[in-house]
Write a structure and sequence with these properties.
The protein is α/β, with parallel strands linked by helices and 370 residues long. Helix content is 49%, strand content 19%. Strands 1-2-9-6-5-3-4 form a seven-stranded mixed β-sheet, with helices on both faces. Bound molecules: nicotinamide-adenine-dinucleotide and zinc ion.
Length: 370
């Protein structure tokens, strides 16, 4: 149970984000960031359940800064609205936020996305820090500077790139996560491992029971490797223009359509991604990808134990896929597994092939546990 902290930088157009991950990440970060924090006014946006479980963390930060003001935000996706952002902009204004004030996000990816959005827009940009407390937020949402809130019409519809000064992914936070949250974070880990880091894939295969059991000694190195993998991709394509960052959407083309069709809140994002990855693997094989590797990743996804899909109409899903904001003029963008550790972005999958594979997939999977 010893400390194990990985310290990386994510370099971007405006500087660099200091990333601390592992057991003892909070101590390491507070030690290194002492000068940055000293005397500053910090507005901590927190998910109340996380503060209840890990409230001592805020007290420790309060000791290092000029002044810490806590602002509770609604739990979960409900935080990511323009009206919540508006309430916080006004609180910052009334409470005297200045250009050198900092915003801090403490909780899952929802509060991280909201806090980055508020920090990026208030006074044309305040510095901010992230303390991600879910596995999904530590490996994915907190890395890469994308911040957004939702509109009733579409998720993540209004946002910007605003990189935090630091990300502190403390493994001890993960000890209180329910298994469903761990499973959803692991879905994103598998997404990255399959295309970017085969050592990580093997580690997840070997340690899955411990990872699903929330053992922080097993989780810490997985978080570290996933952060490193995502950081490399983000640095190679910071604003998703050259295409490489799109590899992170593996499993998300169908995953997003499933979430929208089944209903947000009725299927977890990570579970939708698990089904989306299963389908992307089938499509990869149909487009000439390595069948043995696809079968290997599919076996791992099956072991995650996501709930079965309800009965769904292929035609409605195909329509949603065509409407996705990532779609290009010629149609949907598919991220495929070409070979072990090698992804491919395919913009030319014939829609008849997608339709035929989707019918097969839904027929085989609906009503059956994965
Ligand atoms: N910006 C990005 O690049 C990016 C990438 C992926 C996902 N996201 C966003 O992230 C969000 C999802 O993040 P999430 O899965 O962390 O969800 P979340 O923030 O809604 O948190 C899920 C639940 O876990 C609870 N929780 C958080 N930490 C806990 C802990 N340590 N112990 C016990 N319970 C805890 C929360 O109270 C909440 O109820 C979505 O809004 C998604 O759009 C953003
Ligand atoms: Zn995702």
């Amino acid at each position: 149970m010893s400390a194990f902290v990985d310290r990386t930088e994510l370099r971007h157009a405006r500087g660099a984000t200091s990333q601390f991950a592992g057991r003892g990440a909070l101590d390491a970060a507070l030690a290194e960031l002492g000068e940055l924090l000293a005397g500053r006014r910090v507005f901590a946006l927190v998910q109340p359940p996380v503060a209840a479980l890990h409230g001592g963390v805020l007290d420790r930060i309060a000791e290092r800064v000029g002044e810490l003001r806590r602002i509770d935000v609604p739990d979960g996706e409900a935080a990511k609205t323009v009206s919540v952002a508006d309430r916080i902009w006004r609180e910052l204004s009334v409470q005297g936020a200045r250009r050198d004030s900092l915003v801090l996000a403490f909780g899952g990816g929802s509060v991280g996305d909201l806090a980055g959005f508020v920090a990026g827009t208030f006074a044309r940009g305040l510095g901010w820090l992230q303390l991600p407390s879910t596995l999904l937020a530590q490996v994915d949402a907190s890395i890469g500077g994308k911040c957004a809130v939702d509109l009733p019409e579409a998720k993540n519809a209004v946002g910007l790139f605003h990189h935090p000064l630091a990300v502190i992914a403390e493994s001890d936070f993960l000890a209180t996560l329910p298994e469903a949250e761990l499973r959803c974070g692991l879905a994103e880990v598998v997404k990255m491992a399959a295309l970017l880091d085969l050592d990580l894939l093997e580690r997840v295969e070997n340690e899955l029971p411990k990872l699903l059991g929330g053992e922080s000694d097993a989780l810490a190195p997985v978080v570290v490797a996933a952060i490193r993998a995502k950081t490399r991709v983000v640095e190679s394509d910071p604003e998703e223009t050259s295409g490489r960052r799109a590899l992170l959407n593996f499993g998300h083309t169908l995953g997003h359509a499933l979430e929208a069709e089944i209903g947000y809140g009725r299927i977890a994002h990570g579970d939708a991604v698990v089904h989306g990855l299963r389908f992307a693997l089938a499509l990869s094989v149909a487009r000439g990808g390595d069948a043995a590797f696809a079968a290997r990743v599919a076996r791992l996804l099956d072991r995650l134990g996501s709930p079965a899909l309800p009965p769904l109409a292929a035609a409605r899903l195909l329509e949603r896929i065509g409407r996705d904001k990532k779609a290009v003029r010629s149609g949907a963008v598919w991220v495929l597994a070409q070979a072990a550790g090698e992804g491919r972005i395919d913009r030319d999958v014939p829609s008849e092939l997608v339709a035929a594979e989707l019918e097969k997939f839904l027929g085989a999977r609906a009503g059956r546990p994965l």
